[in-house]
Design goal:
By secondary structure, this protein is of the alpha/beta class. The chain has two domains: 130 residues, Rossmann fold (3-Layer(aba) Sandwich), CATH 3.40.50; 31 residues. It has six helices and five strands; from the N terminus they run βαβαβαβαβαα. The protein has a five-stranded parallel beta sheet with strand order 2-1-3-4-5. Helix 3 links the parallel strand 3 and strand 4. Helix 1 packs parallel to helix 5 and helix 5 crosses helix 6. It is globular and about 60 Å long. It starts with a strand and ends with a helix.
Length: 165
């Protein structure tokens, strides 16, 4: 099975990206986690991205705040799918990160999840990998069924509470 790379521009992003790591673990997906910066370690980023396929990765999740160029810098150096996670920050609330991650030029796509959307980044990475993995696709389908059951239980509870108002 291909690995998922989880890279973040700063170790302070771990508080958000912990949800990615937990979700990848729940799905039984192999992964590596690294800190590298598009601005402070650009050679490291380009080397990692260029060698990612050869090193057994199938998808890269890149999280960064503020200028958030990490996902784009990675996408510029690989043909692997890149999922960007804009990290919320003070001042603009993450809107700067969202736009920097999503507004990529033609030919350099980055799939972008919501600000601090770490869990969805892991699920999207799993869906990408599941294109060639039937067992993973079945696990993702089972997860959706469990989500549906959870919402239905909440609705049943709500209906009981509404009757008692």
């Amino acid at each position: 099975m291909k690995k998922t790379a989880v890279i973040m521009g700063s170790d302070s992003d771990l508080s958000v990206m912990a949800e990615t790591i937990k979700t990848l673990r729940e799905l039984g997906l192999p992964f590596e986690v690294h800190v590298m910066s598009a601005h402070r370690t650009p050679e490291c980023v380009s080397r990692f991205a260029a060698e990612a396929r050869r090193n057994g990765f199938g998808v890269i999740i890149a999280a960064a705040g503020k200028a958030a160029h990490l996902a784009g810098a990675v996408a510029a150096h690989t043909t692997l799918p890149v999922v960007g996670v804009p990290i919320g920050s003070q001042g603009l609330g993450g809107l700067d990160s969202l736009l920097s991650t999503a507004q990529m030029p033609p030919g350099v796509p980055v799939a972008t999840v919501a600000i601090d959307g770490a869990r969805n980044a892991a699920i999207l990475a799993a869906q990408i990998l599941a294109v060639g993995d039937e067992a993973l696709e079945e696990a993702l389908s089972a997860r959706k069924i469990e989500m549906e059951k959870s919402v239905m239980k909440k609705d049943e509870k709500l209906q009981r509470e509404v009757k008692n108002l």
